[in-house]
Amino acid sequence: MPGADKETDLSERIESFLSELKRCGSGAGSLRGSAETARETTALLRRITAQARWGNAGELMEIIRKEGRRMTAAQPSETTVGNMIRRVLKIIREEYARSRGSSEETDQQESLHKLLTSGGSSEDNFRQHFTHLKANVIEAINELLTELEGTTDNISMQALEHIHSNEVIMTIGRSRTVEAFLKDAARKRKFHVIVAECAPFCQGHEMATSLCKEDIETTVIPDAAIFAVMSRVNKVIIGTQTVLANGGLRAVNGTHTLALAAKHHSTPLIVCAPMFKLSPQVPDTPYNHTKLKSVDTILYIHILSKVNAHCPVFDYVPPELITLFISNIGGNAPSYIYRLMSELYHPEDHEL
Amino acid sequence: MADSDGRQVDGVNHATGKIYRLKLFFNNEGKELTKEEKQRLRKEKKQHKKNKKDDKGPPEKEKEKEKASVPAPSKPATQSPAHKAAPAPVHASESAAAAEKPAKSKAELRAERRARQDSERTSKHGKKEGGQQSASSKPKATPNELQPVVKRLPEHVQVDDPAALKKLAKKLERQQVRQIHSHVPLRSDYGYKVSLFSHLHQYSRKSPPTLQISIPATVIHPSIVRLGLQYSQGIIAGSNARSVALLHTFKQVIQDYSTPPNEELSRDLVNKLSPYISFLSQCRPLSASMGNAIKYIKKEISNIPSQCKEEEAKGKLQACIDSYINEKIILASEAISKYAIEKISDGDVILVYGCSSLVNHILCKAFEKQRKFRVIVVDSRPRLEGREALRRLVKKGIRCTYVLISALSYILPEVSKVFLGAHALLANGYVMSRVGTSQIALVAKAYNVPVLVCCETYKFCERVQTDSFVSNELDDPDDLIVTRNGKSHLENWQTVKSLGLLNLVYDVTPPDFVDLVITDLGMIPCTSVPVVLRVKNVDQ
Questions:
Q1: Most buried among A234, A237, A299, B13, using CB within 10 Å?
Q2: What predicted TM-score, i.e. pTM, was given to this entire model?
Q3: Are B417 and B452 contacting, i.e. CB atoms less than 8 angstroms apart?
């Protein structure tokens, strides 16, 4: 039966995606960038929309939520998966509302007045069937995919507005967004980059060699020297793994130290993060700081048995230390992040 | 040959062009020169000699002057009575016991000469050193006033000045005792230096400084060669360890030293030590503690009375060195431990960074005194010294945790105190220590965790510094390369044009990050360092 085939095919794909997520978290698989993960998640959701059996928007949302919970459980630190799911859920809500003919996008904002007077938006449990809903949703997801493709370019286009000549820029670890940002600026400006290597994985080394290929003057420093050289740095530009709902960051370990050092020297800290990294999580949730890697990456000696060793992967950076967010929709202050988030995700989807 | 009453005359050695100090002891009324006068004489002569050595132009003039005034060069002092009436009005004026000469003409002549030197110097050179020299030469004439600390720029911080480099090479060549064939080699820099640090040396561990020394090394004592190699390869590291090793090696050198004829131990030994010190600083720049130790030794050597027999003098010097090590390092660490243990309470979680011998000692002592605490050892690449500290503490039985410095923000909420060691304490209150210390102090301050620095007083130095750039040390940049899964990204960093690796050794921590400094004199705030220095100077 073609339907059953499609279903098994679909569930196979979902399973393989889940296992890949699990694997790349442990470092055994190839390290993917967040952009790739976001694209693959969205493509998978499009496939689910196209091939799964659902009658109305409510059922579709249920299916997506279920798969989404499984995906986020497979790799909790990879928040782009959850973000894309929430985006798609929001798309479905919007398309549904548009099909119903009411311009109820604005209803979704909770205002005190609306709460008192209407009280009826929750009746809308998406049970109506619309024939064109599927096509509309798939088209909207395609638009989302296009947006995802262009995020890095959109961010790099803004590079020249932020970097002047003869600057000394500091960065940490390896971020593809920041790499593209700096390479774009290097086409017209001459500046110097200092990369902190970010032990124990030393992704900073890769970043440095990649920047050198574009003839950017690069220096690699060990993490311990961050404060020592900070006094000569004009700007700090970093990438991040996740942008949290309060405007804080969950970034690679060592970023909090970097941010404190920049604050001490009053150096601006600029975060280049595309919008798909924005997550409705707040800092108190578990997996806030940590995802501990196995400690044999840092200690090889036999006294490992008598000693506790910690190797956290992420750091929390509070929003007070951040000066600017540069994303594909432009530059924003950290205090504005909550607003952007309400535009991207529906409040009911914050908990999948 | 020094005769019985210690009179001697040096002369001009035409072969090398080096001018030995001229010293005439006048024994007119049977009175010996007083010790202070002798010291002052020596200081003036040293200053004179230093001025002459640094200027190319004036030395020729000085040589001529001296040759003219000493008609019988390099003759032993058998003709000392004849020399008493030596037609050397210029040099007779230098000796303080020229009792027949009125003091006024001596001062006049000296002032005249100095003025002439200054004018020659400033006219010949427009260099920055000129200004500093003329500033430093005059104040040295008044030893009893407040010693100013305007010093010349140390050589290891002048790598970007090609003329200074040439001078250093010449000086190393000249540091030879007679009949030399080898000289102290000049070590060449390695690799691309980051532009901000092009004024510092950067050596590679793969090219040891002994490659250019001929065998046998007549200039440099073999134990000094060994010490230099140990420094440059990193076998002896850590400020206390380096100082103690240096002092022990000097003991060996003094043991093997024999005063050549016609020389005095107090003068000649100091001369002998100078090429050794140059060699050691080529191997690895001297630390502040080593600098202080060397100053102490030189002072002790110069204070040896001239009538002391050689064996006695050597024994005295060795005893001095032993007592220095004992007082300043060993007993000091006992005193510091006593103070520090008061600050450790039960249930504490103590964070330490890298491997400081003093901090390890404190923790071991506190553990012996049955304090209940646990330790978090923070480590950093590329030196990874924390592993050594971890090993020592675990051997004692202390509960330890180990993290890298990038995990600092993760681990700091658990910490109750931070103990840091120091390489030197500067006169403006800044703490110079292993790179990464300032970072730890910064983050600890952000989390409101008290930071205690433990430092012996012999590491206090009169330098001032506000950032980690001007006076630092660059280690071998190849240390930053790491191979993971068989790949190392930075392997051929030399071939890539725009890539530089920076391996700093020290950094300075501002005093507002440090809450307390524990020294053998007690617990002081960071800003009291110049007070301690002044007290120490007055004592000496």
A1: A237
A2: 0.78
A3: yes
